[in-house]
């Protein structure tokens, strides 16, 4: 009798939970199904293919001392402790060191998460160079006419590029009902982002907001008349002679690219962006992005206050991080699970680290693992 009663209560509770889940918005239901983001989410979402040109592929040559360096036991343990899947060091355009872990290899693609933002920044520069964007000081409303509610009318493309638009966006990845969760798991990106209010005066203070990159992407698509994937394919992926197709996750079938996060590619191919940064937009003699734009992209937007509102911003340019290391300033692409692409001018080197998590301890705006990965790479580069 007691067992029957317990089963009846369990059935009622289960039914109530099912009703509650069904009443949740689409994005919240998806978040409960998939839980936290992972790097191998390619089949979780709809996607568009960013095609390479199989007849025009450039592969990284192997350095004379390719993989001759032996990681110390301590460094191996550190790479494993944070779920590293790929660690590449490239010097003078040649692969010096290449290490895949946790069952990974050079053909598997990873979501590079917010490192994707730098790609959007590069594409914006190309559209500016082509005259499809008139000026970075153009209001967003020039490209999205409805974007005029309140202080939305004051927001320019430069504000979006420098994360200083003041959008009402909560950068919270662990909250079921945050706008970031909505953006990642939802199916209505355009409506979500274009209807968010501007709650702070634009152009005053830097504050990291993924929604501002997403809005920038919608303005870019309006300016070019192409989807983000197709524009990236035409202007970057094929000209950079990628080895493999890449993928851009969408919010729904035939929907919008998740520009703030979700470009999928291999470690070898993502290193091409490091090469493009090293060479200020030049790819084997062809200027894919103008030097003038790259100079601004890779220079801190020091006219803004930093995220604490205290000092002049010295660590972020146009959708690109600027990482201080041993007296150097290193342009860097950076994703939420420890996806890093470093371009090191003083060494003519690129370091790529892809993995399943990052360290949770910060030194200023950067997590401490970033320094550790560069420390490991420098042992090889100074060897």
What does this protein look like?
The chain is an alpha+beta fold. The protein has 2 domains: 2-34; 47-381, DD-peptidase/beta-lactamase superfamily (Beta-lactamase, 3-Layer(aba) Sandwich), CATH 3.40.710. 34% of the residues lie in helices and 16% in strands. The protein is built from 12 helices and 14 strands. It has helices spanning 2-23, 26-34, 73-81, 116-129, 157-161, 179-185, 189-194, 210-224, 228-237, 267-278, 291-297, 368-381; strands at residues 47-50, 84-91, 94-100, 110-111, 246-249, 263-265, 282-283, 286-287, 321-325, 328-335, 339-344, 349-355, 362-363, 366-367. The strands form 4 sheets. Strands 3-2-12-11-10-9 form a 6-stranded antiparallel beta sheet, sandwiched between helices. Strand 10 (328-335) and strand 11 form a beta hairpin. It is globular, with a radius of gyration of 22 Å. The relative contact order is 0.17.
Question: What does the secondary structure layout of this molecule look like, with pairings?
Answer:
Elements: H1 2-23, H2 26-34, E1 47-50, H3 73-81, E2 84-91, E3 94-100, E4 110-111, H4 116-129, H5 157-161, H6 179-185, H7 189-194, H8 210-224, H9 228-237, E5 246-249, E6 263-265, H10 267-278, E7 282-283, E8 286-287, H11 291-297, E9 321-325, E10 328-335, E11 339-344, E12 349-355, E13 362-363, E14 366-367, H12 368-381
Antiparallel strand pairs: 1-5, 2-3, 2-12, 4-6, 5-6, 7-8, 9-10, 10-11, 11-12, 13-14
């Amino acid at each position: 009798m007691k067992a029957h009663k317990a089963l009846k209560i369990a059935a009622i509770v289960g039914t109530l939970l099912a009703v509650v889940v069904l009443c949740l918005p689409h994005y919240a239901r998806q978040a409960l199904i998939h839980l936290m983001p992972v790097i191998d989410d390619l089949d979780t979402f709809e996607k568009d293919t960013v095609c390479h040109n199989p007849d025009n592929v450039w592969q990284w040559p192997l350095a004379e001392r390719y993989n001759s360096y032996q990681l110390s036991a301590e460094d191996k343990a550190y790479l494993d402790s944070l779920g590293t899947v790929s660690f590449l060091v490239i010097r003078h355009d040649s692969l010096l060191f290449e290490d895949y872990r946790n069952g990974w290899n050079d053909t598997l693609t990873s979501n590079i998460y917010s490192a994707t933002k730098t790609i959007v920044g590069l594409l914006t520069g190309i559209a500016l160079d082509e005259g499809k964007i008139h000026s970075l000081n153009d209001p967003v409303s020039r490209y999205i006419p409805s974007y005029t509610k309140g202080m939305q009318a004051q927001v320019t493309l430069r504000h979006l590029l420098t994360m200083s638009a003041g959008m009402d966006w909560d950068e919270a990845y662990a909250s079921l009902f945050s706008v970031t969760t909505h953006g990642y798991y939802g199916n209505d990106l355009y409506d979500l982002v274009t209807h968010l209010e501007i709650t702070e005066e634009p152009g005053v203070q830097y504050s990291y907001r993924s929604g501002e990159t997403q809005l920038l992407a919608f303005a870019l698509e309006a300016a070019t008349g192409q989807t983000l994937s197709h524009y990236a394919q035409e202007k970057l992926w094929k000209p950079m002679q990628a080895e493999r197709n890449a993928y851009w996750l969408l919010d729904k079938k035939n929907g919008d690219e998740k520009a703030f996060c979700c470009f999928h590619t291999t470690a070898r191919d993502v290193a091409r962006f490091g090469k493009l940064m090293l060479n200020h937009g030049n790819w084997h003699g062809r200027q894919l992005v103008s030097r003038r734009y790259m100079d601004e992209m890779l220079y801190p937007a020091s006219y803004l206050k930093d995220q604490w509102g205290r000092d002049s911003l010295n660590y972020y340019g146009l959708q690109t991080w600027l990482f201080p290391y041993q007296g150097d300033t290193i342009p860097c692409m950076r994703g939420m699970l420890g996806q890093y692409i470093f371009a090191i001018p003083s060494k003519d080197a690129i370091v790529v680290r892809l993995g399943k998590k990052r360290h949770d301890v910060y030194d200023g705006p950067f997590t401490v693992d970033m320094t550790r990965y560069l420390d490991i790479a420098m042992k090889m580069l100074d060897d």
